[in-house]
Structure formats: structure tokens, C-alpha cells
Amino acid sequence: MRKYRYLIALILLALLTACAGGQTETPASPGETVPAGEGGTLTVMTHDSFAISEEVIARFEQENNVTVAFVPSGDTGSALNRAILAKQNPLADVFYGVDNTFLSRALAEDLFLPYESPLLAQIPDAFELDPEHRALPVDYGDVCINYDRAYFAENNLPLPESLEDLTGPAYEGLLVAENPATSSPGLAFLLATIEHFGEDGYLDFWRGLSDNGLVVVNDWNTAYYTNFSGSSGAGPQPLVVSYASSPVAEVVFAEQPLDEAPTGSLVGDQMCFRQIEFVGILNGTQNEELARRFVDYMLDVTFQEDIPLQMFVWPVNENAALPEEFERFAEVPANPAQLDPATIDANREAWVQAWMETVLP
Amino acid sequence: MKTIGRLSRGLPAPGLWLWALPLLFLAVFFFQPLGAILRLALEQALVEGISAYEWGRVWRAVSFTLYQALLSTLLTLLVGLPAAYVFGRYLFRGKGLLRVLTTLPFIMPTVVVAAAFNALLGPRGWLNLFLMDWFNLSQPPIQILGTLPAILLAHVFYNTTIVLRVVGGAWAQLDPRLEQAARVLGASPWRALREVTLPLLRPAVLSAALLVFLFDFTSFAVILLLGGPRFATLEVEIYVQALNLLNLPLAGLLSFIQLLFTLAMTVVYSRLAGQRAVPLSPRLQGEGMAYPMTWKQHLLVGIVVLGLLALLVGPLLALGFRSVTTVAADGGIGWTTAYYQELFVNRRGSLFYVPPVVAARNSLVYAAGTVAISLLLGLLAAYALARPSRLNRLIDPLLMLPLGTSAVTLGLGFILVFNRPPFDVRSFPALIPIAHSLVAFPFVVRTLQPALVSIPAPLRQAASVLGASPLRVWWEIDMPIIGRAALVSAIFSFTISLGEFGATTFLTRPEVPTLPIAIYRYLSQPGALNYGQAMAMSTLLMLLTGAGILVMERFRLPGSSGGDF
């Protein structure tokens, strides 16, 4: 009996020393574990929706003689959380995918190194929300209400032209929206209503929506595929909170070629919320020079022109041409709502709480 | 005296060393990350504090979590126990296939199950359309989505297989002569069941109930997708607070509460299960089984089979059906193989395209790893637990903790701890079978332990006295008796891994995506093709899992005599 105790003690001791040994080493980083530059690896942390063409990345890899490894890390919130939790030993060199609703948090955590890319000259100033250039804009998209064309045509129903219209009896029980506590488009749409109605008025609007048979679900998947009548799921609601680009995706991923999208977006004045996504060089990288080159590459025309059909968002670079499908089938809001990232970060929790108490008593 | 004591346990040496590997595993991959994240949350909580409003939310989440878990567990037992009886006592055609089919719900990604439920029970689902057509109704009569019954139904759908496998397996191995003796002595069938069979099955029933309860208790996606925003379990609340509101202190508090409840539950379980069952010679597989004879028996078997088909297999069939049909704008239905063909095409030249074969291979490799790790550790722990000692009473409840731990919290803990060599982001794929094993391991222990306890000491003693080495005793006495339980454990480890439980989503990398990850990817973009491909990929996942289980069930352990198919 006794000798086994010693054995266990020995094993535990060995384990402890192994752990401690690992911890006392000089803080390791991707740069050290994999040498930078010639034949090395650049690690890019992203959210799960990130997508890009093989050939676009292959070109960068050839030009710079590196391998680019992507680490998808959950949705926007999860990915940012990962980066924050691991900021002492960054998991990657570059982080892509923080949006304007989370930007302040990322900057407050001091995640990124500043980099004033020369490519910023080709990007409209409106997208540059960080004056210190720690987070650089890459793409944008609008969260808008989508409608089922067939339903509105069959029922001879005019489309809602403003958010206020949605509380009218004509649209009773027709809208499905996502819970802002669990869904990023849900939060974006809540922010649009706050911008439009102001902090004093948005809850009244939601009360009106609620009385008018608003359906709330927790995530975009359920809203779009289970509840929305315009999708393949063929649900009961002909209006859904989704993206301005969703009708384009419906055409691109249709079973048979289509001349018109089966769905459309309501892009009236302040009916949509604009999400801008940023890239940043992670503080603590050993590959800063290479990371800068990759950020430049992301902002340059080749990468920017590949973005729309891969991720269904719009490129920020003015010189990037849009694919034909986007020109033909996408409606872009002229005046989307936008809120200052710092205001969003300061109030997110309070707004979401107030929303929950109003809509989900 | 001492030697006899040694012999009666029939094992090579005292049990402390058996614990070494399982405890080491838990210490490194469970307690270390969990401790790290809880400490961080506590530090922040001390600075920021927790408001009265937040306490209110905590209280609501706790009470709802317990309420729905209790109801779900009772319902699952209500469905599962009669089914376990039929599977344990009767032979009928297609039994093997039905057993495999009833296991499949366990692995289905919840997004897909939600879609299947919607196709069947949704406002425009087949059942509603049929009823509206039949009774000339203008409104769909069944409004279940987004209600408590939808949550309960989904939990029964997911977890009935646990009762069926764990209790059904034990039932099949029960000595039928005891019940027969009771009947001969004049007991009614009901009394024989109540006073002979059920007490003997007690350890298995308790094990199954605990497992089902813990799965319901930590339920996440079912609540989120089928219950809707009006319902929040602790796990859902943790997810919202940690990842959407970035409120780590509250998430930490909630995880801690969840852990305490899990611990309390396992302690209660240990007390209940502590009164040992009488060890009985387990019988040959199939000895107590017969084809139904009387009309009552036929009726019972018929009801159970039809019930299982409707409840568990129905939604799966709806899925498979949807993966080969197109629905035109006018509601017309046509057949297509386009979704399957499209799976094999990387149309957009995307870097993140996953060929189905690669995804399937990755899934299988992870599942095989999970089976190996959790069976090895589970066997060691189950043997260690089989000897009563003070140490065991302390360790026993700890073993179940991984099952009752928030996957979000543990995932965040993994990130916090495993971010430097030898475990950094590059080795995350290797951590996936380990993360799956954390969930599978308690399962394996709980399945093996009742079987081990049932081995009568005289059998081992006789073998030893007759000159068998300890290893041979184990191989020829223990293995045949626990073979069925080991098989059940292997199948659950396999399905747990294929179904992507736990912290996996935090650990995936694009080079090694699994089938469920690929399914999520399709469903995250609009478009008929994406939807169809998700259904097709889910159908492939079902077929793959079904095939895997079939192969494992055909696998014969030494000495085990024919199964009951």
C-alpha cells in the first residue's frame, strides 16, 4: 500500500514540475514557437463567419513566403473573449472580426498595436472609428428587415416604409426578431431603434411591436430558417431581422438560377444598423512586420474584391469593384443608423436589460 | 485472512494506484482550467460586485433549471423504462436496428433537430398541415414551438436512449429465475416486478436517472433554440453573460452555482445507490428473453415499438426526407440529389470549404480517440470505485462534475490555461478528444460501475483457487460480465464525441472541421442550397453514426455469448 503512495506522489511531483517548468519559461508567443518570416507562419484569429478564397490567401503566402493559419474562434463575442483572456500570451498575430458594437471593449483591453496603413487613404473616413489606428476597418454590412416578396405580392400588402409602420395593424404578427442578449443581428437592430427613437422612445416602440404580435427567437438561424416564410424553412412570418445582403445570398445559393431574389430588404431611413468589422495587430506579436503586410493585403483591392461573395458583406476600399450579384440584387440603405462605439459599450447591458424587461416580462 | 481478502477482490493489488491516471487526467484537463477561470471571475466580482437585479436573474435561472430538469427526467423515465423492459425481456424482429436508430437522436446537432421538429410540428409542419386539412381548420392546432412542452419533448427525444441502453442492458442480464420463482410462489406479475425486479435494477435505474438529469440540468441549445427567449437555464444564462454581455463575474458565479448543484446531486445519488444491490450471477445474454406470446405481450411490444418510432425515429426520418426533396414556391414537392452533389463541390473556391469525406474522417478520428481515452480511464476508475473506502466516498461525487459543468466556462478556462507550450493553439485539435472524454468519462464510470458491483466474489474466488492468474480471472470472469456495459460505454463515448458536446466549439480549427461544424457553417448563411446541404450533411452524420454503432455492436468481447439481435 505504502509504496504505491510514493508512486503517486512521484507522478504528481513530476507533473507539477512539468507544469511549473512550462510556466517559468520566458513568455512564449506564436512568434517564438514558429519562427517568423522565411517559411514561418502568420496566425490570424477570426470569428466563425470568416471566409475567403484559397487563391487569394495562396497569393499572399507565395509573395511573402509564409503560411497563413486561421483560427476561427466562435461568434464575434466569443472570439473577442478568447483574445482578451489570452492577451498575456496572444494566440495569434492578427485579429479580424471585432465590430463597432464591441470595438470599445477591444480598445479598452489594449488588444491591438497601432498601425497607420497606407491603404487607409483608399477607405472613406466614415469607417475609421479609431483615430489611433489600432483597429482598421475591413468591411461593413447592414442589419435590415428582410421581407418575403411572394407573401406581400399575394396579399397585396404595401411594404412597411418606416420602423413606425411596423406597429400598425396591417403588420400584426408578421415580424420575427432576434433576442439582443443572444444574437448579434438582434443587438444591431435594437441599436437601430435606439438611434431612431432615442433613449427615451425606443422602449415604447418595442412595447408597440410586442403588442402587435412580435415574435422573438434567440438566434438568427431559428429566425431565418424556422420562422421566416421567405427561406427554405417556410415558416409563418414574412418579415425577419436579417442582413441587407441576405437576398443576394438567396440568389447565389438558389437551387435554380433566379432573375429576382425571393426576398428583399427594407432599407428606409434609419431602418437598418450598420456593422463595421475591423482588423488589428495583436499586442505581443513577434511578427509585427509580417502582420502589417497582411493587414495591408486585407485592405488592398484583391482581398477586398473577394470579400462580398465569401462573407456577404461590403468592402470598405473605394477602389474595390462589387460583384455583379451585389450590383443586381442588393439594396443598400442610404441612411443606416450608427452609434458611437463608446456609447454602445457603456450602455449595452442596461439597454439589453431594459429591452428584456419590456419585451420578455 | 489477509490473502482471502485479497482474493475476494480478485484484483492484482490495492486500489489506490487505480486512481492515479483518472485523477491526473481530471486535475490537468478539468480542475486546472476550471479553477483558473473561476478565480479570474472571482477577482473581477470582488472589484465590480453583483447587483440585486443580477441576483434576481440568478434565482430565476436556478429555479427554472431545476424545474425543467426534474420534469424532463421524469418524462424520460416514463418513456424509457417500459422501453427498457421490452428491450431487456423480449425478442422481436428489427430489434437490433431499432436499438441503433434510437441512439441516433443523441448525436444530432440541435440546430438540425430544431429544423426537424419544425418540419414535423411547426406552424407549417406536416402534422399541422395534415390536421388542418383533415378537420378543416383555419389555424394550426399544434402550437408547441417556444413553449415548455417543446423543451420537454426535445429532452425526451435526446435522452431516452440513455435509459434504454443503461437499464435495458441491466435488465437483459438479470437472472430471470428470481422473477420466475416469485411468480411460482404466487406473486402477481406486478408484485414480482415491484419486489424482485425493480430492486435488483435499482443501481442501473439510478445511474440512468442521474445521467439524464445532469444532461437536462446543463441543457443549452435545446432551451435556446426550441424554448426561445422566455426560458433560460443556468447554462444559457452563463452563455449570455460570458459571451454576449462580457460579464465574466456573473458568469463565474452562475458556473459555481451549477457546480454546487451537480455536486449535491451526485452526493444524493451516492447515498441512494450506496445501499448495495445483492450481487447475483449475471446470466447469459438472451436467457430471459422470448418472443411475445400472449396478446397482451404483443400489445405491449407493439406500443413500445410504435411509440419509439414516432417519438425518436420520426424527426430523424423527416430530416432524411427533407435532404432529398425540394419545395417549390407553390408548395409542390420534388425529388433531388442536388444537395448531396453540391456537398462535394467547392463552388466559391473558399479556403474553408470542407469535403464531406474529410469532415467525416475528422469526426471519426476524434470519436475513436474519445472512446479509447474514456474507456481506459473509466475502467480504472470503476474498478477503484468497486472497493469501498473512505477515499472513494470523497472522490466519487467529484467524478460526475465534468458532466454538470458549463461548457462555456470550461472552454474559456481551456483558453486561459492552454495557451503556452506544450498546449497552445496549435495543439487544440489534440485537445478535442480530451474535451469530449471529460463528458464521456463520467458516463463510462456510471455505466461500468453497476456491472462491476454485480460480479459475485465467489466466481473470482473459485477461479483463483482453481489456479487462474489475476489477469486471467479478469479476462474470463470480469470481462464477459461487464462486456455489455463496456459496449454501452463505448457507444456513448462514440456518440458524445460525434455529437460535439462540451467545449469543442472553442477548440476547432479550420483544417480539422468535423461534421457538426460543417453543418453549422451551412446553416449560417441564407439560401436554399445551404439549407439543403445542411440537411444532407446531417443525414450523412446519422448514417455514419448508425454504421459506427452497428460495427461496435457486432464486435464480440471474449467469452460473451451471442447477443440478442
Descriptive report:
The complex is a heterodimer of chains A (361) and B (565). With 361 residues, chain A is α/β, with parallel strands linked by helices. Chain A has two domains: 9-141 and 275-328, D-Maltodextrin-Binding Protein, domain 2; 142-273 and 332-359, Periplasmic binding protein-like II (D-Maltodextrin-Binding Protein, domain 2). Helices cover 42% and strands 17% of the residues of chain A. Chain A is built from 13 helices and eleven strands. The longest helix of chain A is centred in the middle third of the chain and has 28 residues, at 184-211. Chain A is globular. Classes of the chains: A alpha/beta (361), B mainly alpha (565).
**Average predicted confidence as pLDDT of chain B:** 81
Oligomer state of the chains in this structure: heterodimer
What is the name of the CATH superfamily of the largest domain in chain A?
Answer: Periplasmic binding protein-like II
Task: Output mean pLDDT of chain A.
Answer: 86
- Termini separation of chain B: 45 Å
- The portion of residues forming beta strands of chain B comes to under 5%
CA gyration radius of chain A, whole angstroms: 24 Å
Number of helical segments with 4 or more residues of chain B: 22
Percent range of helical residues of chain B: over 70%
Pair with the most extensive interface?
A-B, 85 and 71 residues
Helix/strand layout:
The complex is a heterodimer of chains A (361) and B (565).
Chain A: H1 2-24, H2 30-33, E1 41-46, H3 54-64, E2 67-72, H4 76-85, E3 94-99, H5 103-108, E4 112-113, E5 136-148, H6 149-154, E6 175-178, H7 184-211, E7 215-217, H8 220-227, E8 239-243, H9 246-252, E9 263-266, E10 273-282, H10 288-299, H11 301-311, E11 314-315, H12 324-329, H13 341-359
Parallel strand pairs in A: 1-2, 1-3, 6-7, 6-8
Antiparallel strand pairs in A: 3-10, 4-10, 5-8, 5-9, 5-10, 5-11
Helix pairs in contact in A: 7-13
Chain B: H1 2-9, H2 16-48, H3 52-89, H4 95-103, H5 110-121, H6 126-135, H7 148-173, H8 176-184, H9 189-217, H10 221-227, H11 234-244, H12 248-274, H13 295-322, E1 325-327, E2 333-335, H14 338-343, H15 356-386, H16 390-400, H17 407-417, H18 428-453, H19 457-465, H20 470-498, H21 515-523, H22 528-554
Antiparallel strand pairs in B: 1-2
Helix pairs in contact in B: 1-19, 2-12, 2-15, 2-17, 3-7, 3-9, 5-13, 7-9, 7-10, 8-9, 9-12, 9-18, 11-12, 12-16, 13-22, 15-18, 15-20, 18-20, 19-20, 20-22, 21-22
